[in-house]
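quick q for whoever's on today - can somebody do inverse folding on this one?? i tried earlier but teh output was garbage lol. tokens:
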């Protein structure tokens, strides 16, 4: 049963790369306007799950998904569902900043233009709104025509967030968004996450447990493709239900 605050649900999800089972029987609900962190050691399935939520794994040959992933009550793997539409509503920011080798302005307007937005005033307003939401407007407003490649790593990552927001998604997926960044840039992105959750639902994969504790409302701990525990972040870090979770967060393994 989907309650009003649940925007996306995984129901008994299994996922295979060829014969390898990367996720086993994952069931969890993601709530609207919350930050949910997915933690666990490398190779435990957290990024695989993240990419399942906007059908990015469709692009990999030989993969198979079982179970259901419901977005606003509708199975995103249903035959009638267009994956491009899914990715428009569920945006993604990757581990390494990946701006297009274009101007800052054209990075942000690239997706919206593909969907039919062409009026100059509309595009300019969208660029300003997206950059302000990503806390990059003051730094970029005078260099919009210059290449995005000249920005620093932290600025590039905020540009990628602005580019995702320009598509007006409901959900923002972030796969280790600060792992390639210095501590100052990381702090800026974390502040941004806190601001953005007022308008968006955010799901973040992070190796950094302190980061999960700082930015998220709920945390899921994965191990070997299984969801071991899913609880409010404070509970999971201070009073976990599972011994395995406790062992991981206290550094006994992982």
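ok took a stab at it. sequence:
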């Amino acid at each position: 049963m989907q309650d009003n605050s649940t925007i996306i649900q995984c129901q008994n999800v299994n996922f295979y790369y060829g014969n390898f089972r990367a996720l086993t029987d994952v069931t969890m609900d993601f709530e609207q306007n919350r930050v949910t962190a997915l933690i666990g050691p490398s190779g435990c399935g957290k990024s695989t799950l993240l990419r399942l939520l906007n059908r990015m794994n469709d692009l990999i040959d030989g993969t198979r998904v079982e179970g259901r992933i419901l977005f606003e009550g509708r199975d995103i793997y249903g035959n009638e569902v267009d994956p491009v539409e899914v990715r428009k509503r569920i945006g993604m920011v990757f581990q390494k900043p990946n701006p297009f080798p274009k101007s800052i302005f054209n990075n942000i307007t690239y997706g919206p233009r593909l969907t039919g937005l062409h009026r100059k005033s509309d595009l300019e307003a969208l660029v300003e709104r997206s950059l302000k939401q990503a806390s990059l407007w003051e730094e970029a407003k005078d260099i919009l025509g210059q290449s995005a490649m000249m920005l620093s790593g932290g600025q590039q990552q905020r540009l990628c967030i602005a580019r995702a927001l320009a598509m007006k998604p409901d959900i923002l997926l972030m796969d280790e968004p600060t792992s390639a960044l210095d501590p100052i840039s990381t702090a800026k992105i974390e502040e941004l996450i806190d601001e953005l959750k007022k308008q968006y639902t955010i799901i973040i994969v992070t190796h950094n447990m302190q980061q999960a504790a700082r930015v998220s409302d709920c945390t899921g701990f994965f191990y070997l493709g299984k969801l071991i525990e899913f609880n409010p972040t404070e509970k999971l870090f201070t009073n976990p239900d599972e011994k395995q979770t406790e062992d991981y967060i206290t550094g006994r393994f992982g």
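fwiw The chain has one domain: 6-249. also The chain has a mean pLDDT of 95. so keep that in mind when u check it
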